[in-house]
Amino acid sequence: MVEEPCSWPNLLGWANIDYTGKRFDMHLNADFTQRALERFDGGDWVDSPMPGVRRRMLDRIGGEVARATSIVRFDPGSAFSPHTHDGGEEYLVLDGTFQDEEGDFPTGFYVRNPPTSSHTPAARDGATIFVKLHQFDPDDRTRVQIDSGKAAWSRTAPGVETLPLHEDERERVIMERWAPGTRRTLDASSGLEVFVVTGTLSDGVDRLGRWDWLRLPVGATFKATAGSDGACVWVKTGHLRHVAGASA
């Protein structure tokens, strides 16, 4: 049985115009038929249009308004202007406390703001989030706010505890805690993304550590083994079959 909860590291839409005033259109890991891996320690931070907000981009198609997966860091006292998420937003708070009109979301919160929702996000004391934008069903109106540190996890396999976060006809989103050395096979037939919150894992191709991100295409297989310190992971499956050009 996995006895320890996720331990969280203590680390502190506009037009397509970047903060320098130049137009840009980025295509990062935009081929969804290929395996994509981004290591937290291996990339650059990119300033956003708002002071004190920087992004570590993982995949992106577009400019400031983009289908995007990113790690976003908010310096203490930073904020974004009020905006509407036409394509939806989901995020997991990795560090600090994120805020908007709905309240405070400390480390460990998973939030889904569906299409047409609007807010004014901020981080009074600083925060880091893993966030996905413009990837919802356009008709989705379901709000989700789950504190993974207080929610009830279920033992679903030897050495595995699972916390369901969201499931619909398009996708399934969960978090899992794996005991050290646990071997885990997950359905990647319709695509899979895994983000390592804490610990380490190996899928036989790469070793992933804290805040590393892996995306597997439609038709892939995912068999992983947790490292000596175990692993806590965020996982999304099923969604890539709805992405144009993503089918094998």
Describe the model.
This protein is an all-beta fold and 248 residues long. The protein folds into 2 domains: 26-144, Jelly Rolls; 152-242, Jelly Rolls. The chain has strands spanning 26-28, 36-38, 46-47, 53-62, 66-74, 78-79, 83-85, 89-100, 103-106, 109-113, 117-119, 122-123, 127-133, 144-147, 154-157, 160-167, 172-178, 183-186, 190-202, 207-208, 213-218, 222-237. Strands 1, 3, 4, 5, 8, 9, 10, 13 and 14 form a 9-stranded antiparallel sheet that branches. β8 and β9 form a beta hairpin. It starts with 25 loop residues before the first strand and ends in an 11-residue tail after the last strand. Mean pLDDT is 87; it is low at 1-5 and 8-23.
Q: How many domains make up the 3D coordinates?
A: 2
Looking at the structure, the CATH topology of the largest domain is Jelly Rolls
- Main sheet properties: 9 strands, antiparallel
- The CATH level-2 architecture of the largest domain is identified as Sandwich
Mean pLDDT: 87
**Low-pLDDT residue spans:** 1-5, 8-23
Structural class assignment: mainly beta
How big is the Rg? 17 Å
Shape: globular
Which strand-content bin applies to the residues? over 45%
- Please bin the fraction of helical residues: under 10%
**CATH homology group of the largest domain:** Jelly Rolls
Order of helices and strands: EEEEEEEEEEEEEEEEEEEEEE
Number of strands: 22
Count helical runs: 0
| N/C terminus separation | 37 Å
**CATH C-level of the largest domain:** Mainly Beta
